[in-house]
């Protein structure tokens, strides 16, 4: 949803013009994936950079169940993390990420032109395999900040 003069305008992908990936001029759609737990300025910078790659930023947010499968546990539950992401001006849509295999389906369903991830994912087959469907861009992480580092600092204070 976009807000213009306090009027809510439905901007869900099904109602938006199709993208370059579909062969029709329209919005250039960017998709990124992540857990976005303990939201920090590194996340904000990544989302800002991602939004500059196109006109419409979709964030696929790892569900609590998917995080458990990956051996991760979030401090904040999915719905809270989703609400925080939706409040960020760079983010146009938040969708659930529930498995590794959904990425190709997401690209097709949302007519994605660019998938972007942090540079630490470069070379990962989950993302490299998408290059035949869309552009794949790896963004530099913000030095000196990560969720792992924040959690470690918090644990060391107790």
Automatic annotation (TrEMBL):
GO cellular component: a single term: cytoplasm
Classification via SUPFAM superfamilies: Nucleotidylyl transferase
Biological processes per GO annotation: teichoic acid biosynthetic process
Keywords from the UniProt entry: Nucleotidyltransferase, Transferase
Keyword Transferase: yes
Domain of life of the source: Bacteria
Gene Ontology molecular-function annotations: glycerol-3-phosphate cytidylyltransferase activity; metal ion binding
Residues in Cytidyltransferase-like domain copies: 31-152
Entries under InterPro entries matching the protein: Archaeal_FAD_synthase (IPR050385), Cyt_trans-like (IPR004821), G3P_cytidylTrfase (IPR006409), Rossmann-like_a/b/a_fold (IPR014729)
Protein name, per record: Glycerol-3-phosphate cytidylyltransferase
């Amino acid at each position: 949803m976009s807000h213009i003069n306090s009027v809510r305008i439905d901007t869900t992908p099904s109602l938006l013009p199709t993208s370059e990936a579909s062969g029709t001029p329209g919005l250039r759609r960017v998709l990124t994936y992540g857990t976005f737990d303990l939201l920090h300025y590194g996340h904000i910078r990544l989302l800002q950079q991602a939004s500059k790659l196109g006109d419409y930023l979709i964030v696929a947010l790892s569900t609590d169940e998917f995080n458990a499968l990956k051996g991760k546990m979030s401090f904040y539950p999915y719905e809270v993390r989703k609400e925080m992401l939706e409040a960020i001006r760079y983010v146009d849509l938040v969708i659930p990420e529930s498995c590794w295999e959904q990425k190709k389906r997401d690209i097709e369903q949302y007519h994605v032109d660019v998938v972007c991830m942090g540079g630490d994912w470069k070379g990962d087959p989950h993302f490299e395999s998408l290059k035949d469907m869309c552009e794949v861009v790896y963004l530099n992480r913000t030095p000196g900040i990560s969720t792992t580092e924040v959690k470690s600092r918090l644990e060391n204070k107790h």
